[in-house]
Amino acid sequence: MNTESATANPYLLFFRNTGPENHQRLSADERQALVIRWNAWFEELLATGKAVEGQPLEMETRVVSGAGGERVTDGPFPEAKEAVGGYVRLMVSGLEEATEIARRHPGLAYGMKIEIRPLTPHCHLGVTTRAAPAAQTASR
């Protein structure tokens, strides 16, 4: 399977291990410097058209499972360290470019992990998938 092409392909970067406990040992100045570098990393991606969107996620979570959604469990959960704390959606040439972007994230130096996943228009179950129209996503 060729993961590189001349066209832009959608990828998600999922940020894990991003909770407050990860940054407790940093001084206020160090925390501020990290925020400045993190924002600069993201703003550069937006300016170059590589990032389409990005958003942190709340720690609170709800899991629905079982037939008919019979089980509902509220979190956060003990394994919250591995929970997704945020994401960035990229439009890049392929996995190698997405990996290089992830490797430049300043949060990696503080224990953050980044999972890189390609989006696919084809569900293995045959479920219909499609992107939202540009006008709809722009109005959000």
From TrEMBL:
The protein's name in its UniProt record: YciI family protein
Top-level taxon in the UniProt lineage: Bacteria
Domain YCII-related residues, every copy: 26-112
Organism of derivation: Horticoccus luteus
Family: Belongs to the YciI family.
InterPro entries, A to Z: Dimeric_a/b-barrel, YCII
PANTHER family the UniProt entry points to: BLL7171 PROTEIN, BLL7171 PROTEIN-RELATED
Taxonomic classification: Bacteria, Pseudomonadati, Verrucomicrobiota, Opitutia, Opitutales
Gene3D superfamilies: Dimeric alpha+beta barrel
